[in-house]
Write a structure and sequence with these properties.
It contains 18 helices and 14 strands. The protein is an alpha/beta fold and 528 residues long. A six-stranded parallel beta sheet has the order 2-1-3-4-5-6, sandwiched between helices. Strands 7-10-11-12-13-14 form a six-stranded parallel beta sheet. The chain binds iron/sulfur cluster.
Length: 528
């Protein structure tokens, strides 16, 4: 619940740090859109913004859209920052800039919760989720907004129930300028994959909002201008299967009421393929993409990382089943596992060909603090603290061999011919199974049509005329145009452009081989 009854007024500046270019943030697609400039609005910071006392003015700055200015800092009484490990340097940089204005700076979110010692300069560390630490922070700032003489660490012991969460302050974000909108229904995951920090940070018993909260949030997102895809950022949408089953009828009703202008996406374990009753309802609710952490097609490796649940159905069969409900699978893949062999790269490429998954985020293994993997590698003395490397893991295979194999896989998997062939398959065998949408005034709105036309014009110009893979593009595009399938043209063209351009840079060492790597991140700091 929002804190009420604060008599003092404090102006809070919430600053979200920049990301560096990454495979999963689609920067190369932005120039083909109608003004998208950043990936997703940050749930955590917008939630805190909504939780602050109603009479406290809040200003939100996402430095992926614009830099926090002198005027912002002069306006504020205190600064809040949140982010993930990959934004660590940028968060410390925001702190440095705020301190130049003698402002108290508080940091919360997943990175500081796992590694408080990464942030020695901040005045307040908010460790854990929304809860008593948040109330304490607000009370301290209400009493005295100046910088405390030494760092204060506030830990949440008593979490706010998710059913009491306010709607994140989406109205503070420029929702239209994001590639995706985000929403959260649950937190936590019942599994314990060795490399994952989610169960350690958020627990194994998923906590939930109510379906009514989600519907209210979707309505708010629409009011704020969300028009395309809303991504459920839940760690595992079926972490609590009953909860997913409870929510889906509400989503279906909402889609009917609002004319199916929003596509839905989520993350879920691959064993969702064993639940046709859930998949059918997801199809009706217009889910079009599921991110599955397949990680590796090697059963021995899945067993070693404690991801046996990926083997509840044969992986390829699971992917086909999900496709048959009109949903594309996006997959996470990890290279550099202890079970990897010299031929792992070849096997991965064969899997990609066979699965026909267009988009796979292929990363080198990185040990995150607070994971069983970190603890094991620490015991084995195999953690490498060298920020010039693409991974902090001392692989069993030589590092250079693993890195070369990753670069080769990126180069081959995202060759335009291969990628567009996989998208062609999706058009024929996945998108064809999507829900046939009833005509709605919302979809046929002038704003929607204008958006599509802008994107088409940019795609035709930048890819179809100026692009060096234009022949492959036109072969695909003409097929879509003949069928009058503009949506099936725009979506793949946007994504493919990012993947092709990013993979080219990656294969020559100009992009990091891990989303978590600090190598090459220097370039993006500071944000000024
Ligand atoms: S299933 Fe996904 S969220 Fe759950 S522990 Fe494994 S990797 Fe983490």
């Amino acid at each position: 619940m929002r804190v009420e009854g604060m008599e003092t007024v404090r102006r809070i500046l919430c600053v979200f740090p920049r990301y560096t270019s990454s495979f999963g943030t689609f920067e190369y697609s932005y120039p083909l859109t109608d003004g998208v400039r950043a990936f997703m609005p940050p749930q955590g910071l917008l939630l805190i913004a909504a939780y602050l006392p109603a009479n406290w003015p809040v200003r939100f700055v996402d430095e992926n859209l614009r830099v926090a200015t002198k005027e912002d800092f002069e306006w504020a009484d205190a600064v809040f920052v949140s982010g993930m490990h990959i934004q660590r340097q940028q968060m410390n940089d925001i702190c440095r800039r705020a301190h130049a204005f003698d402002l108290a700076v508080a940091i919360g979110g997943p990175s500081v919760s796992a590694c408080p010692d990464y942030y020695p300069s901040f005045d307040y560390l908010h460790v854990g989720e929304l809860g008593d630490a948040t109330d304490d922070l607000i009370a301290r700032l209400a009493r005295d907004p100046s910088r405390p003489p030494q760092q204060v660490v506030l830990k949440t012991n008593d979490r706010v129930a998710m059913t009491d969460f306010p709607i994140p302050a989406y109205e503070l974000a420029e929702v239209k300028r994001y590639f995706l909108s985000s929403i959260q229904y649950s937190s936590g995951c019942p599994y314990q994959c060795e490399f994952c920090d989610i169960p350690g940070l958020y627990g194994r018993n998923p906590r939930l909002k109510s379906p009514q909260q989600i519907i209210a949030e979707l309505d708010r997102l629409r009011e704020c201008g969300a028009t395309d895809t809303v991504y459920f950022v839940d760690d595992n949408f079926i972490g609590n299967r009953k909860a997913a089953v409870d929510l889906l009828p509400h989503l279906i009703e909402w889609q009917k009421r609002t004319g199916y202008v929003i596509r839905l996406a989520c993350e879920a374990t691959l064993n969702i393929a064993k639940r046709p009753e859930i998949l059918e309802k997801m199809r009706e609710a217009f889910f079009v993409t599921i991110f599955c952490g397949i990680e590796t097609p090697d059963p021995e490796a899945l067993k070693a990382m404690h991801k046996d649940h990926n083997m509840m159905v044969p992986i390829l069969e699971g992917v086909r089943t999900i496709n048959s409900y009109g949903m594309e699978v996006v997959s996470g893949i990890i290279m550099g596992l202890d079970t990897d062999k010299p031929e792992t790269g070849e096997a991965l490429l064969a899997f990609i060909e066979e699965s026909k998954i267009p988009l796979l985020t292929i990363n080198l293994l990185q040990a995150l603090p607070k994971t069983p993997l970190w603890d094991r590698l620490e015991r084995e003395n195999r953690l490498v603290h060298d920020e010039g490397r693409d991974s902090n893991v001392d692989f069993l295979l030589p590092y250079d061999q693993v890195l070369a194999s990753w670069r080769k896989c990126m180069e081959i998997a995202y060759q335009p011919e291969r990628l567009y062939a996989r998208f062609q398959y999706q058009c024929d065998f996945t998108y064809a199974n999507k829900l046939k949408l009833p005509a709605s005034a919302q979809q046929a709105s002038w704003a929607n049509i204008k958006r599509g036309l802008i994107m088409l014009r940019k795609i035709f110009w930048k890819v179809g005329i100026l692009g060096d893979y234009r022949k492959v593009f036109w072969k695909f595009a003409l097929g879509r145009l003949r069928r009058g399938d503009l949506e099936g043209l725009i979506g793949p063209a946007l994504i493919a452009h990012h993947l092709i351009m990013f993979a080219r840079a990656a294969s020559v060492g100009q992009q990091n081989a891990s989303n978590y790597s600090l190598r090459l991140r220097e370039a993006s700091v500071p944000a000024e």
